[in-house]
Amino acid sequence: MAYKITDACISCGACQPECPTEAISEGDSQYVIDVSLCTDCGACANVCPTEACQPE
To answer: What is the pTM of this model?
Structure first.
């Protein structure tokens, strides 16, 4: 199960460098996770200040 970034994202960018598979990128209005690259490690969720990274 991949993670997703919810509307709680404030585009702080804390999650992007933590992703070991580089599945997170900056989208138009917030960061997004490429589910085909996400390995469900939870590294993004561990650093997100708004808890926007959630299991899908």
So the answer is: 0.92
